[in-house]
Specification:
Radius of gyration: 18 Å
CATH superfamily: Luciferase-like domain
Number of helices: 10
Number of strands: 11
Helix content: 40-55%
Shape: globular
Mean pLDDT: 96
Number of domains: 1
Structural class: alpha/beta
Strand content: 15-25%
Distance between the termini: 9 Å
């Protein structure tokens, strides 16, 4: 099983030096990938996220890519229906090429209605916009010139060109556990779930593998970890691996950078067991 780590791009520990240090540390310690999340604008009294200080995910990964050579770069997750897919497709293709093919696009429909309203994006059409936006991005990544008939995205695309195209296909892993999210994931390259208890992992893996038995379809989980609970995390990761989960992203709970970096070192001690 592969192990990824979230980058410190949220809250008071976020900043260029901390992101660089964390990316370099993750690569040196043997993690498979580094990850970021997304909120663009949030209500003043929102219970989540814990801080409105939220560095942009694509720019954060571009910064991390500049200081690393091997680790993959993932989004957990980009809220695609909040964005117009054409500029996003350009940004992601550029990042894929600047990083020499290391990008994983984790994507979801989102849940914060006020954020959609602030951005002028229709909240109740987000599933349709998600599907059409993915189709449009994949089209501009592969066809040149491109014509695309859009219904839910405001776009008129008739014999147009967008370059650069990605040097390698960008895998798309879908987040969420709703029926539409699972159906969408099974059409694409992977499922990136969260808050799935180890005891429930075998049932979910069996359900996904019944439709997508090919190992190229990735089953990934995002799990929160208090760095003081190493034995619990060891047991949970072993259970996920036994169930057939191929990848786990560890989201650390430490708020201060030094404590966060120490927790990353603790998490790295589990990597040899996962690869044994």
């Amino acid at each position: 099983m592969q192990l990824g780590i979230h980058l410190p791009h949220i809250g008071r520990k976020a900043g260029p030096d901390s992101i660089r240090r964390a990316a370099e540390q993750a690569e040196a310690l043997g993690f498979d990938d580094v990850w970021v999340s997304e909120h663009i604008i949030v209500p003043k009294d929102a219970a989540y996220p814990p801080s409105p200080s939220f560095y942009d995910p694509v720019l954060t990964l571009t910064w991390a890519a500049a200081f690393t050579q091997r680790v993959r770069l993932g989004t957990s997750v980009l809220v695609l229906p909040m964005r117009h897919p054409l500029p996003l497709a350009k940004e992601l293709a550029t990042l894929q090429n600047l990083s020499r093919g290391r990008l994983i696009l984790g994507a979801g429909v989102g849940w914060m209605e006020a954020e959609f309203a602030a951005l002028g994006a229709p909240f109740h059409e987000r599933g349709r916009r998600m599907d059409e936006g993915i189709a449009l991005m994949r089209a501009v990544w592969t066809d040149d010139p491109i014509s695309f008939s859009a219904r839910w995205i405001p776009a008129v695309v008739n014999e147009m060109r967008m370059q650069p195209r990605p040097m390698a296909p960008i895998p798309i892993w879908i987040g969420g556990s709703s029926e539409p999210a699972l159906t969408r994931a099974l059409r694409l390259d992977g499922w990136h779930g969260s808050r799935l208890a180890p005891a429930d992992a075998p049932t979910m893996v069996q359900r996904l593998r019944a439709v997508r038995p090919d190992p190229a379809f990735t089953i990934s989980l995002r799990v929160r970890w208090d760095g003081a609970q190493q034995e619990r995390m060891r047991a949970d990761l072993a259970a996920y691996a036994a169930a057939g989960v191929q990848h786990v992203l560890v989201e650390l709970m430490e708020r201060e950078l030094d404590a966060w970096l120490r927790a990353v070192e603790d998490a790295a001690r589990l990597i040899p067991e996962l690869r044994a």
